[in-house]
UniProtKB/TrEMBL annotation:
This is Hydrolase. It comes from the Bacteria. Keywords: Hydrolase. Residues 59-70 have a biased composition (Polar residues). One of its GO terms (molecular function) is hydrolase activity. InterPro entries: HAD-like_sf (IPR036412), PGP-like_dom2 (IPR023198). The keyword Hydrolase applies. Residues 50-70 are annotated as: Disordered. It comes from Streptomyces collinus (strain DSM 40733 / Tue 365).
Length: 144
């Protein structure tokens, strides 16, 4: 979701392209934050400043909301793929820490949407479709 922004910047500024690291960058800048805050934090760490853009803007626009929209479109497509005849979505679960992911799970009519809450996210996840909210997935094992 970030690599388009990261590829274009070096081309404009003559810097080396360093791709998004799904472990380090995600953990340091994105995880546990609302989507737009994660985008801002990650891009700021790389010295990239973008305009906010429209919340429902085009996914390929170079704005803070562009990458978030691109990820949301991916989630919706993933949920739609879950409607294949071999998959009974009402017997499937979605485990998600992003508000858009919880929303996509609810929209896809999955049997259970589990929100994995970062600080201050529990009520937001519930409001966006999570049936159950935990701080850690181990809590699901404890409930057995």
């Amino acid at each position: 979701m970030f690599d388009d922004c990261l590829r274009e910047r070096p081309a404009r500024e003559g810097a080396a392209y360093v791709p998004f690291d799904a472990v380090h960058d995600y953990g340091e800048s994105v995880n546990g934050r609302p989507r737009e805050d994660g985008v801002r934090t990650f891009l700021a760490a790389r010295g990239v400043r973008l305009p906010e853009g429209a919340p429902d803007g085009q996914p390929r626009t170079q704005t803070v909301n562009g990458p978030g929209t691109r990820k949301n479109n991916f989630l919706v497509a993933t949920v739609a793929a879950g409607r294949a005849p071999a998959v009974d979505e009402d017997a499937a679960a979605v485990l998600e820490d992003a508000l858009a992911g919880a929303e996509a799970g609810r929209t896809g009519r999955f049997g259970l949407v589990v929100g994995v809450a970062g600080v201050g996210q529990a009520e937001h996840l519930r409001a966006h479709g999570a049936d159950v909210v935990v701080r850690d997935l181990d809590e699901l094992l404890e409930a057995r």
